[in-house]
Amino acid sequence: MLIGINRAKISQGAEVWRPSATFLKFLEAIRSDFQHNKVLTDYAQNLSTTVLKLNELSKLYAGKTAQQIIHSLVISEAQRLLLYDDLSIKELASALGFNDAFYFSNFFKKHTGLSPQDYKESFKSKNYMVS
Length: 131
Known about the structure:
Layout: H1 2-11, H2 21-33, H3 40-46, H4 51-62, H5 66-84, H6 89-95, H7 101-112, H8 116-125
Helix pairs in contact: 5-8, 6-7
């Protein structure tokens, strides 16, 4: 995500992106612990900051709210697992910190427009799957 933002800024002639240490720690905390499905207040508390500050930094550096960043990273990991691991939807939901496969499926569909199964099948049918 960070590399993509930097490339976009450079291509527009902007300076190289240098985010704050707090924002970088926030991204690292999400990546290392997203499977526990933490809420934004937990991240803020662990980083000794506020939800308001995390949202401010997130909008400044990524153009998204902090919650949108969390959701984006969870969706990215779900997509990766759907394509490259042979987990059932229930196992996948559990691995990502969801207690309910139905809730996970709704969450995934809300963010991608496809159910997890449809997402997986759409890539299989286009031969995008790596064997």
